[in-house]
TrEMBL record:
It comes from the Bacteria. InterPro entries: AllG-like, OXTCase_su_AllG_h-dom. This is DUF1116 domain-containing protein. Gene3D superfamilies: conserved protein of unknown function from Enterococcus faecalis V583 (1.10.10.660), Enterococcus faecalis V583 domain (3.90.1710.10), NAD(P)-binding Rossmann-like Domain (3.40.50.720), v583 domain like (3.90.1700.10).
Amino acid sequence: MSITDLFSTDLKPVNLGLDMFAEDLAAQGAAPVRMDWTPPGGGDPDVIAALGRLERPEVAEKINAANEEALSRILAAQPFLEGFGRAIDTVPGMTATTILHAGPPIAYERMSGPMRGAVTGALVFEGLAKDLDAADELARSGDITFSPCHEHQAVGSMAGVTSASMWVHQVTNRTHGNTAYTNLSEQLSKILRFGANDQSVIDRLNWMRDVFGPMLGAAMELNTDGIDLRLMLSQALHMGDEAHNRNVAGTTLLIQALTPYLLETDFSTQEKREVFDFVASSDYFSGPTWMVTAKASMDAAAGIANSTVVTAMCRNGVDFGIRVSGTGDRWFTGPAQQVVGPMFAGYTPEDSGLDMGDSAITETYGIGGFAMAAAPAIVALVGGTVQEAMGYSRTMNAITTGNNPNVTIPALDFMGVPSGIDARLVMETGILPLINTAIAHKDPGIGMIGAGIVHPPVEAFQDALRTLADTVGEA
C-alpha cells in the first residue's frame, strides 16, 4: 500500500489523552479508538518531577532493593489467631475514655454522620453518657481521646469505632513477632460500625461484651496451638471468597475451627446456642479476622528506609489516608470518595456517605478487590460483571511489587494475589488501587444501604510521592 492509499481507506485513529480530540474526529466521520490513559503523576508537574528523581538509576536501585525487602516480609508473615480479649486489657494505649476510629486522624467535629453515630453509640454503651444527646456533648467536650485504630496496632471495619469494653481479636505474626487487633463482627446491617446506635444496637453490644467475646476468649484459651490464618485465608479464596465483602467460606472455616473449643467452655448450652445462631446470622463473622490478618502482615513491612510500598490504606468518611513503608507512620491524605454500586431498595446514591473504614487493609495486602477473580459471585453485591472482576485482579499486577504464592486465585491459573502496592507505579501508570466496600447512609443511626467499588484519591499518592522524592530521591 502506498501512502496515497491511506486517503481512500477508513482511518482508525488512536486517541490518547483529552477526549476532545476524539470527539472532533468523530464529528468528521472517523471512528477513533479511545485509550484509557492518563499522564504520569496525574499530569501534575511537581509529581512528574518527583517521579523523575525517583527513577534515577542510583535511586531506583535503592528503592527496588527496599521494596523487595518489604515484599519478602509480607510474604513471610504468618499471622496466627492467638486469642480474644477486652480492648482495654489488650490494645496498646487504650484507656476507659479512648475511642478508636477508622481512617487517618480526625476530630469529632469533622467526622462523618455515621462515624459520629458510632461514637455516640459507643459512649452510651460504655456508660459514659446516659443518652445520645449527652454522648454528643461529651464527645465535643475534649474529655474523650479520639485516635485512629492504625495508631494502636489495630484496624476497624467501617466507622471502626472501638471502645474499652469491646472484645477484640489478638493476632500475632509469628515470623516477625508483631501483634495486631480488631473488634468483633456485629453481623447485621443495623449496627454500630455503620453508624446505627439505637437500643437494639446497644443491647447487641452488651451481649457481645458479656457472652460472645468471653466465650470466644475462653475457647482460644483451650486452643494452645492458635489458628493459622494465612492457611485458612488461602483455603477461603479457593472456595470462592475474596475475604473483604464475600466471606461465606472463611466464616465456615473459622467457626469450624473454633467449634470444638467453644463446646468445651463452661458456658451454658443456651449461651452456646446463642453464639452459633449469631455467627450463622451473617457471613461477615470472619470479615474482621481477614482484616487483622492483613494488618499483622503489613505492619511487618513498615519502616523500611527507601521503600515505596504502601503499608496501609484507610478512610474515615471524610479523608482517605495511606502510609508508605519508607515514611513510617506519616499519613498522606486526600478526600474520601463516593462508592459506586448497587443500593438497597428505597435508597439512592444521594443517601450514601463517603468511603469509610480500615477494611482497605485487605486490598493493601492483596485480597478484597485485588482478589475479585477468586470470587465471581461478589459482583451480585458490588456490581459489575464476572469478566470485570477477573480483569481487576489482573490489572492490579501493574501497580504491585509482586505476587503472594501463599494466597492464590484458582481462576487465574493459581496466580498469587497482587501484593505490595508501589506508590511509584500508581503514579507512573495512573492506575489507582481498586477497593470493594460497603456503603453506609450519610446520616447517623441508619446503617448499611449498599455496596460497590471505589478508588483512593490521587492526591494521597501525589503527596506521598513528593515526600519520597525529597527523602529517597535526594539521599
